[in-house]
Amino acid sequence: MGTRRNSRHRDRIILEPGSGQAVPQRLHKTVVLVGMMGAGKTAVGTALARRLGVPFVDQDDEIQRAANRTIAEIFRENGEAFFREKETKVLERLLAGPPCVLSTGGGAFLAERNRDLIAARGVAIWLRAELNLLWARVRYRSTRPLLQTENPFETLKGLYEARTPIYALAPIHVQAFSNYSVEDTAQAVVDTLARHPDILTEDTETRHHAQH
């Protein structure tokens, strides 16, 4: 049995990374990570997918691959409305596949049509992070088209305040803390999902074979 420690995630117990053998689990629907830029959706999603033994897919990577251009180039050459159309088409295609962990762009969950798609075919998890943590993570990056302004912090703050009530519509919320590693946060998501048997259950068949 692995070493356990107390968590700031309410009554959640976190298994220290690498401290024990993971229990085989079966994911029944695609987990869609939503939230602000800098919340850690890609890093946490990658770790989460590894823990659950399912593919990890980054929606922005899929959009760039389909368009053969970067997100910044799409915004610059075709505008945000065009990008949002591509975003929805890619989201619909990805949700039609087998269960996986899907990281979305910061604006994807804002559109009602996208929220409806996710609710019908997957489950949205809001990866929450405070504004100061988001700013610390994105302030030196030039790959965020929406922050190419004279005052990027105020732009980020405006986005944060406008988007937070919409992200809150996600049925599951997990807080990201500055003193938590990527693995800690991924385990917090697993712990939360484990309380939803329609999403994640212990794979008793795999466990039975492993024990014999």
TrEMBL record:
It is found in: Cytoplasm. One of its GO terms (biological process) is chorismate biosynthetic process. GO terms for cellular component: cytosol. Pathway: Metabolic intermediate biosynthesis; chorismate biosynthesis; chorismate from D-erythrose 4-phosphate and phosphoenolpyruvate: step 5/7. Its main location: cytoplasm. PROSITE patterns: SHIKIMATE_KINASE. GO terms for molecular function: ATP binding; magnesium ion binding; shikimate kinase activity. ATP binds at residues 38-43, 144. Mg(2+) binds at residue 42. Binds 1 Mg(2+) ion per subunit. Keywords: Amino-acid biosynthesis, Aromatic amino acid biosynthesis, ATP-binding, Cytoplasm, Kinase, Magnesium, Metal-binding, Nucleotide-binding, Transferase. Its cofactor is Mg(2+). The keyword Transmembrane helix does not apply. Substrate binds at residues 60, 84, 106, 163. The keyword Chloroplast does not apply. Pfam families: SKI. SUPFAM superfamilies: P-loop containing nucleoside triphosphate hydrolases. It comes from the Bacteria. Catalyzes the specific phosphorylation of the 3-hydroxyl group of shikimic acid using ATP as a cosubstrate. Belongs to the shikimate kinase family. Monomer. This is Shikimate kinase. It comes from Meridianimarinicoccus roseus. The gene is aroK.
